Amino acid sequence: MLIKIAKTNEISAGAMKRFTVRGKKIIIVNLEEKFYALDDTCSHNQCSLSKGELEGGIIICPCHGARFDVSTGKVLALPAVKDLKIYPVQIKKDYLYVEI
């Protein structure tokens, strides 16, 4: 099911923003006008990734430094060992939609 999240201009290039969609906490990341949606919760210690840092296409967890690839959700650095769930994103008339 596609769910309207926000206008594309609400998330600046190189930034991420947290949303709650159907009870799920997700982050939307804008990398050079390409948008990605992932679980917001680190798979290591349940920290909110939206409070972490974004370095290029990598999200760094603020609690223990685990790193995840924005485009795939894959773990890139310990202590996390489980990948993040990603959600398909579509843009329609300047609005972001996420498939949950």
TrEMBL record:
Keywords: 2Fe-2S, Disulfide bond, Iron, Iron-sulfur, Metal-binding. Residues 3-98 form the Rieske domain. One of its GO terms (cellular component) is membrane. GO terms for molecular function: 2 iron, 2 sulfur cluster binding; metal ion binding. The keyword Iron-sulfur applies. InterPro entries: Rieske_2Fe-2S, Rieske_2Fe-2S_sf, Rieske_Fe-S_prot_C. SUPFAM superfamilies: ISP domain. Its cofactor is [2Fe-2S] cluster. The keyword NAD does not apply. Pfam families: Rieske. Belongs to the bacterial ring-hydroxylating dioxygenase ferredoxin component family. This is (2Fe-2S)-binding protein. It comes from Candidatus Kerfeldbacteria bacterium CG08_land_8_20_14_0_20_40_16.
